[in-house]
Amino acid sequence: MAKFKIATPAGASFTTAGGGYDYEMGELEGIDAEIVEGPTDEDGFISFARDADVIYGKGMKFSTKVVQGLPEKCRAIVLGSVGVDSVDVVAATARGMPVTNCPDTFIEEVADHAMMLLLASHRRTLEQDRMVREGRWREGRPALLQIPRLMGQTLGLIAFGHVARAVAKRAKPFGLRVIAYDPFIEELVMVEHGVLPVTLEDVLSQSDFISMHAPATPEAEGMLMEKHFRQMKKTAVFINTGRGPTVQESALIKALSEGWIAHAGLDVLEIEPPGNNNPILGMPNVTLSAHTASASARFDPARKRHVGRELRLILGGKWPMSCVNPAVLMKSNLRRWQPVSMERGPNS
Prior knowledge:
With about 350 residues, the chain is α/β, with parallel strands linked by helices.
């Protein structure tokens, strides 16, 4: 039996099946630790993890009940994702337990995907494709003659973490004016990226494209409501590559069906996968992808290696690199080992 038990729910995280734990264990070389799979139900996992030294969080929700049921010796909950909405971070913080994520592993991919949805939505790529396949060749050009050129239009970013900054960098060469709203980021940071800091109302009313990047925190859940979509231009395109629950989907559906906005490009939905009765699936003015923005050939290796490095630090008695509740670190038994910036977190 290994010295350290890393408890994790059985199965893969996200939609990547199989693969084992070779990447994580590669980073743990020299550490007498093993990753052991357990049940995915709350009571079963609590019982299974009663002797765990650290939790590799995936495959289930780590609710208040689960977090409070973890043993006193459990040092942290380590996630292989950017989002931390699968863990009750408030409960973990209350008991002094660090929660880590992968804040900078998939930034470029998600930013690429956001720009893809923006461009595909603006130029009506799916509609144009259907016209060609259905023998409606001559309808393509007249449809696009109703759409303004991209250059000179305004892109509004809601939240200005790492992904939003990467999107802004990509949007500039297309001639887009970029504005952003984020009450948790210094305005000078936006200015340094060539982005104009504005209010949420300004983003909604001025933008031709609105890209949602708010994290799925309790405060941001249902952040965009009917009143917000009513403030947008009728020609606006709404993009979301962040988290579905940050938007009240019923309000978005109403905005699209009643013409408050023109189009939406969505990688995330309120409930995933969506049921067949979700009206969004039948809307011609919506471009969809299956929560795949972060996916690329480096996706699994990169995030698993990151998890392995965090596990190694924690089991070695050191601060992790990417703690989303850093206030707990000073009071923990872990030691600070280098001047690590703690800016990165769930808003990344």
